[in-house]
Amino acid sequence: MNTLKRIVVKIGSHSLSSSTGGIDDVVMDKMANTIASLRDQGIECILVTSGAVAAGMAKLGLKERPIDIAGKQAVSAVGQGILIEKYSSFFENYGLTCAQILLSRIDLVESAHYRNAQNTFERLLKYGVIPIVNENDTVAFEELCFGDNDRLSALVSGMVNSDMLILLTDVDGLFTANPTKDSNAKLLLKVDDINKVKSLADGEGSSIGTGGMITKLQAAEMATKFGISTFLMNASRLDEINKIPRGIYPKGTMFPPCNHKMTGKKRWMAYAALSMGTIIIDNGAQKALTKEGKSLLASGVTGLDGYWERKDLIKIVNLNGEEIARGFAELSSEETDRAKGLRSDEIQRLIPSLKCEELVHRDNMTVIM
Question: Distance between alpha carbon 144 and the CA centroid of its chain, in Å?
Answer without folding.
Answer: 14
